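1st attempt posting a full record on here, be nice pls
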Amino acid sequence: MPWLPIAAGQHLGSRGALGKVAAELGAAPAQVSLAWLLHRSPVIVPIPGTGSMEHLAENCAAASVELSEEQFRALSSAY
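the predicted structure (as tokens):
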């Protein structure tokens, strides 16, 4: 189980790979971070913290964010 997989985007910065992919997809960096985890393996189950109904909806919407292989590689190499 990943621990702190999102880190509020701080691990890559808004100008880094996470911010770039988020802008390309029109998604929030947190959604892209969750989508990256889901893309890595069908057995990963991220459990992000949720402080509001809006945040819950954003986290759930991450399941529909589809990364291209190029985006997935860019995020993976940034770690």
